[in-house]
């Protein structure tokens, strides 16, 4: 049998290799989008959900070595996650300097790319420091929903010019459902946070009400007078009202036990 007969037809054909690469890229995108659609944000903490989205972006976007995702929330510190330590280091530099592709993408709502960060005059201080770390390419994608820009996702690569037009196209395709997944995770997190706050408020109110009742029963004063006395104690002892109320309740319980179990 000759070598021509043993070799697979078209094994070294550039066109076939190109088609195989393109098929692999599209398959990675389909797989990532499918996983994104099944992302159970309700069963994950917010940071876990965002990290999963960033990991799927690395799989979907050709040339990616790592990704970071920043979620912007009013009246709260930004939530920042990453898929690799080098991404965390880069994003720390970016937010420390107050300049970089993610900040630009979030501010403009448009995709931002760079294939040579060290020579990019849009972020001279950021680019120079990141290039020294051996990272030269970035694709920053705003996470846009009907409610506005939630944040942005940075996809990094070590080589120069790692992200071509096709990578940017895939990134933008991925960012649409990614933004929805991130918004769902944010809403669920906010709902859980609000429920916890309401529960704490109910517990706090119950403790204050018990302390007020104790003062009323001891001194024969009105509810308003008892509450004012509790507030005065709070101010004098430089403690929050619920903490003072809890001390009053605890002391009343201790005295009651002592009466019922003398000498114990």
What brief labels describe this structure?
single chain, 264 residues, alpha+beta, Arc Repressor Mutant, subunit A, 2 domains, 5 strands
DSSP summary: helix tally: 9
Identify low-pLDDT runs: 1-10
Order of helices and strands: HHHEEHHEHEEHHH
Radius of gyration over C-alpha positions, nearest whole angstrom:
29 Å
- Percentage beta strand: 5-15%
Distance between the termini: 99 Å
- Percent helix, as a range, is 55-70%
Query: What's the total number of strands?
Result: 5
The CATH class label of the largest domain is Alpha Beta
- For the biggest β-sheet, the strand order reads 2-1-5-4-3
- In total, how many domains does the architecture comprise? 2
Task: Write a structural description.
There is one protein chain. The protein has two domains: about 20-185, GAF domain (Beta-Lactamase, 2-Layer Sandwich); about 195-260, Winged helix-like DNA-binding domain superfamily/Winged helix DNA-binding domain (Arc Repressor Mutant, subunit A), CATH 1.10.10. It has helices at about 5, 15-35, 45-60, 85-95, 100-110, 125-130, 165-220, 225-235, 240-260; strands at about 65-70, 80, 110-115, 135-145, 150-155. It starts with a helix and ends with a helix. The protein is elongated and about 95 Å long. The longest helix has about 55 residues, at about 165-220. α2 runs antiparallel to α3, α2 (about 15-35) packs parallel to α7 and α8 crosses α9 (about 240-260). It has a five-stranded antiparallel β-sheet with strand order 2-1-5-4-3, with helices on both faces. It is an alpha+beta fold and about 260 residues long.
């Amino acid at each position: 049998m000759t070598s021509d007969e043993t070799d697979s037809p078209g094994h070294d054909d550039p066109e076939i290799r190109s088609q195989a690469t393109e098929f692999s890229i599209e398959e990675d995108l389909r797989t990532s989008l499918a996983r994104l659609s099944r992302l159970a944000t309700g069963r994950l903490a917010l940071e876990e959900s965002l990290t999963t989205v960033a990991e799927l972006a690395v799989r979907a976007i050709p040339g990616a070595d790592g990704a970071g995702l920043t979620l912007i929330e009013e009246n709260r510190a930004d939530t920042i996650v990453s898929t690799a330590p080098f991404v965390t280091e880069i994003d720390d530099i970016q937010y420390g300097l107050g300049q970089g592709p993610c900040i630009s993408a979030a501010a403009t709502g448009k995709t931002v790319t760079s294939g040579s960060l060290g020579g990019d005059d849009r972020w001279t201080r950021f680019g120079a420091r990141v290039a020294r770390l051996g990272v030269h390419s970035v694709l920053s994608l705003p996470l846009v929903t009907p409610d506005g820009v939630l944040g942005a996702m940075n996809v990094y690569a070590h080589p120069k010019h790692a992200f071509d037009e096709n990578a940017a196209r895939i990134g933008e395709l991925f960012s649409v459902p990614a933004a929805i997944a991130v918004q769902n995770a944010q809403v669920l997190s906010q709902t859980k946070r609000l429920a916890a706050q309401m529960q704490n408020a109910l517990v706090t109110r119950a403790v204050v009400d018990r302390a007020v009742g104790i003062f009323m029963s001891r001194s024969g004063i009105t509810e308003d007078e008892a509450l004012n006395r509790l507030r005065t104690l709070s101010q004098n002892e430089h403690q929050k009202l619920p903490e003072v109320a809890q001390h009053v309740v605890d002391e009343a319980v201790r005295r009651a036990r002592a009466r019922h179990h003398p000498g114990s």
